[in-house]
Amino acid sequence: MNTLLNHALRPGLAGLLCLSTLGVAHADGGRMMPRDMPKAYTAECASCHTAYAPGLLPARSWQRIMSGLDKHYGTDASLDEATVKQLSTWLQANAGTYKRVNEEPPQDRLTRSAWFERKHHEIPASVWKHASIKSAANCGACHTGADRGDFDDDNIRMPAGVSLGRRWFGHD
Q1: Burial level of 33, CB count in 10 A (0-12/13-18/19+)?
Q2: Which residues pair with 150 in a beta bridge?
Q3: How many whole angstroms separate alpha carbon 88 and alpha carbon 91?
Q4: pLDDT for 17
Q5: Which of 42, 89, 99, 117 is the most exposed place for a label (fewest CB within 10 A)?
Q6: What average pLDDT does this structure show over 98-113?
Q7: Angstrom distance (rounded) from CA 155 to CA 142
Q8: Is 96 exposed, middle or buried (0-12, 13-18, 19+ CB in 10 A)?
């Protein structure tokens, strides 16, 4: 009877295992913004730059960033201790662990990571300096879903006055 019961339950258990694996894969997909984003992340971090999805950087990078807010890329972005703890815990829990972000980028800069450079290697330096973009860190200038962690190539819109030409979009 146990054997019969085990065989009957096996497809159901397999389905549950698949669903739980999909949940883990989605959570570690990294690019999408976790649903439990603290309000302080938007209020503090997104007030100056794109609120980057935590999965875009490894945990050690987030740890260094949060412990050096007084010298945050040339700006004093200091926060009270409770907010630092809350955001650090959330960033660590949602940091990227998949192959693409395994490597810590130079100076913990997202825009210097190997995967970022690979995805943006054909973009001329002049584009990053355009008045409507200002830097490679301004993801929202071209990626319409950047605030949600959605960087799908199908959702790119170039700001007025910026052209990458036909070659970049694979038309040549």
Answers
A1: buried
A2: 145
A3: 5
A4: 35
A5: 99
A6: 87
A7: 8
A8: buried
Q: Which residues pair with 72 in a beta bridge?
A: 75
Mean pLDDT for all residues in the chain: 79
Is the pLDDT score of 2 beyond 50? Answer: no
Q: Which pLDDT tens digit goes with each residue over 28-68?
A: 345 688 989 999 998 998 888 888 899 999 999 999 999 99
Distance of alpha carbon 168 from the chain centroid: 23
pLDDT at 10 over 90: no
pLDDT for residue 30: 52
What is the CA 147 to chain-centroid distance, rounded? 10
* C-beta of residue 55 within 8 angstroms of C-beta of residue 95: yes
Angle at 57 between CA 52 and CA 63, to 5 degrees: 100
List the one residue out of 60, 80, 59 whose CA is nearest residue 69. Answer: 80
